[in-house]
Automatic annotation (TrEMBL):
Protein's UniProt name: Two-domain cob(I)yrinic acid a,c-diamide adenosyltransferase PduO
Gene: pduO
Domain of life, per lineage: Bacteria
InterPro entries cross-referenced by the UniProt entry: CblAdoTrfase-like, CblAdoTrfase-like_sf, PduO, PduO-typ, PduO/GlcC-like, PduO/GlcC-like_sf
Known EC number: 2.5.1.17
Residue ranges of domain Cobalamin adenosyltransferase-like in the record: 3-166
Pfam families reported for this sequence: Cob_adeno_trans (PF01923), HbpS-like (PF03928)
Enzyme class: transferase
Swiss-Prot/TrEMBL keywords: ATP-binding, Nucleotide-binding, Transferase
Annotated GO MF terms: ATP binding; corrinoid adenosyltransferase activity
Length: 335
């Protein structure tokens, strides 16, 4: 059976009532834009990784069919037995918005569209939903349109925005996890080559601390010194008189970060910038990771044996003091 009827060749189309109107009629423009939106939503379903998001989007696609069917009729109320948009569907959208936005950090300015495919497609669908809303408002100026439809389409664009933010958040978190795992496995493989290096001895811990205090004294900078073992457990915590109280929090975090990431903390700064492999790491770790200078991993014969963190001076001073301490014993800051 042919799908073409030739009845629309003159630029008209039929409503559900059988009445023929121009293909540019506001009613046709409204449900035609909804058709575009539905096609875009199908791409969102294919790209979205979150199962709950996919299920919601598939439900929304059906609701768009109900909405389009209502607009294609001149009746002011849905026909008996026909599915139609109600406050129940609006409430479901609002719940989805609250859940999605509760998982992401608040923003107080405009953002660029998505940084992953799913989010990008959702943002595109959001713009179509906004256009469909404008067409619906135009139609409502000429004929009676149920108010609930205007509320629904307005809330739908908000929902698509929220889902896009959540998909971007998940993609960024997964990227961080994969990058951290890659770095850890790469370091672990290299470390497995040599097992002769033992943990830091009491004498070495003492030498590290004494060298750091000596260098800090020469610079006139009171600092907090933290040394951890290869598992990130603190072995030494030393606070010089007059050191900043906040340094008691920062120094252990620097030492832990250096061991956890097997990287000097200042080298992480570039990796956490927007678009870099570890963008979002700091928020993901809820402030436990430090990405400015003063923390160094301690390697011996290719094996990670601990980490040192210095805090109290400028970034450059903290790094200087840490490197002076490392020079006092037989360890390196790189593998």
């Amino acid at each position: 059976m042919a799908i073409y009827t030739r009845t629309g060749d003159a630029g008209t189309t039929a409503l559900f009532t059988g009445q023929r109107v121009s293909k540019t009629h506001p009613r046709v423009e409204a449900y035609g834009t909804l058709d575009e939106l539905n096609a875009a939503l199908s791409l969102c379903v294919c790209a979205t990784l979150n199962t709950q998001h996919r299920e919601l989007l598939e439900a929304i696609q059906l609701q768009i069919f109900w909405l389009s069917a209502e607009l294609a009729s001149e009746s002011e109320q849905p026909a008996p037995g026909r599915r139609y948009i109600s406050t129940e569907e609006i409430a479901a959208l609002e719940t989805a918005i609250d859940v999605a936005m509760g998982r992401v950090e608040p923003v107080h300015s405009f953002i660029l569209p998505g940084r992953c495919e799913a989010a990008s497609r959702l943002h595109f669908a959001r713009t179509l939903a906004r256009r469909a809303e404008r067409r619906l408002v135009e139609l409502a100026a000429e004929v009676t349109v149920r108010q609930v439809l205007l509320r629904y389409i307005n809330r739908l664009s908000d929902c698509l925005y929220a889902l896009a933010r959540a998909e971007d958040h998940d993609a960024r978190q997964n990227k961080i996890i994969q990058e951290v795992a890659r770095r850890y496995l790469a370091s672990a493989d290299a470390s497995s080559v040599t097992e002769s290096a033992g943990p830091l001895t009491f004498q070495e811990l003492h030498q590290l601390t004494r060298a750091a205090i000596s260098r800090a004294g020469a610079l006139g900078v009171p600092v907090v010194i933290s040394i951890v073992d290869a598992n990130g457990t603190e072995s030494i915590a030393w606070r010089m008189p007059d050191a900043l109280l906040v340094s008691s929090e920062l120094a252990p975090k620097k030492a832990w970060t250096a061991v956890a990431m097997k990287t000097a903390t200042h080298e992480l700064a570039a990796a956490v910038q927007p678009g870099a492999p570890l963008y979002g790491l700091e928020s993901h770790m809820q402030g436990k990771v430090i990405t400015f200078g003063g923390g160094f991993p301690l390697w011996r014969e290719g094996v990670l044996v601990g980490g040192i963190g210095i805090s109290g001076g400028s970034v450059e001073q903290d790094m200087d003091i840490a490197q002076a301490a490392v020079a006092a014993i037989n360890v390196r800051t790189h593998q």
